Amino acid sequence: MDHKRIEWLFFIVFLLIDIYLGIEILRSPVNLSGADTATRSVASIRSEMKSDNIDLPDKLSNAPASGYYLATKNRNYLSNKIGALTNVNARYSKDENVLYAAPKMTTLLDKNPKKALEQVNKFKNDPKNVPYGKEFKYEPDMSSEDNYVFVQTTDYGEIYAGSAQLSIAVKDHQIINYAESYMGPASPVRELQSTISAVRAVRAMYTNRELTNNSKVTQIKLGYSKLTEVRGSTILLPTWLVWIENKTTKNITLKRVNAYTAQMLKSTTYNVEK
Questions:
Q1: What residues have CB less than 8 Å from 150, skipping those under 6 apart?
Q2: Which residues of the chain are modeled with pLDDT < 50?
Q3: Is the CB of residue 259 less than 8 Å from the CB of residue 201?
């Protein structure tokens, strides 16, 4: 009797397992279908743009990201730092809110690009050369052989704005001068929010005819751009930054998409000559 009861218990257990596996099998096509939808979304964009001779990166995420509205105080952060810049001749432009400086001594950079970048970074990180230098990150997609561009970093991401940028000019493998603008510390003014995906940002650009024929999207990344100024503060918002190369001229243009609304931001396009 006990033996038969055990057999029944095993039968019931295996039956429940079979039912569970059956349910999972039925669910699988649904889940796969959801994954395929995202894949088809990317594939659909590629197919549409291919007909217009527009190329996209191999990896383009369909997953939403997240970001904050940030605020920085509009203050003069640079002029009072000139006294500490003992290795450079510096001047501050109040009208432009830009610090200009040139090294007092010649530093010969290595002909190897990687080693030269290390030397430029070392120069940048020395507070006797550049104020707040360690808060700037090298941006290769905005740089060229004779101009190393760095963007201001925050705890929440990089700021892509002319008022938060360091450009170090090089000639004949020597640092000639630099121009620096700095927005100061950034802090959230609202809670963390979801953003659109990189795929949706590209689709929005294509729909709004911001992607021209015979072009190539070389890079897309999430950063922060200036939205507006309010009561002595600058408000920044998450932005999809899209680098577009003209296949004929090879000029690169950086365009920006509001990462919350998918709208194009005004006056955010400039050429990066390689």
A1: 124, 136, 137, 138, 139, 165, 166, 167, 168
A2: 1, 6, 10, 13-14, 16-40, 267-268
A3: yes
CB atoms within 10 A of CB 179: 15
| Confidence (pLDDT) at 44 | 78
108 contacts: CB under 8 Å, gap ≥ 6: 173, 174
User: Coil, strand or helix: which one is 208?
Assistant: coil
Do residues 96 and 222 share a domain?
A: no
Gap between the Cα atoms of 187 and 82, Å rounded: 26
Q: Does 164 lie in the same domain as 81? A: yes
Is there a domain that residue 109 lies in?
yes
In a domain, 35, yes or no: no
Q: Are residues 247 and 194 part of one domain? A: yes
State the pLDDT at residue 171.
96
Q: Residue 127's closest CA among 176, 167, 85?
A: 85
Q: Are residues 62 and 98 in the same domain?
A: no
* Number of alpha carbons in the 13 Å side-chain half-sphere of residue 56: 24
d(CA 79, CA 90): 9
Give the per-residue pLDDT at 229: 87
What dihedral do alpha carbons 239, 100, 140, 52 form, nearest 10°?
60
Q: Give the pLDDT of residue 158.
A: 98
The domain of 219 spans: 42-69+187-272
Beta-bridge mates of residue 223:
239
**Do 165 and 86 lie in a common domain?**
yes
Using the 3D structure, point to which of 137, 164, 183 is the last residue of a domain.
183
Cα separations in angstroms, 161 against 67, 235, 246, 272: 17, 12, 22, 14
Phi/psi of residue 141, nearest 5 degrees:
-75, -10
Write down the pLDDT at residue 107.
84
pTM of the full predicted structure?
0.81
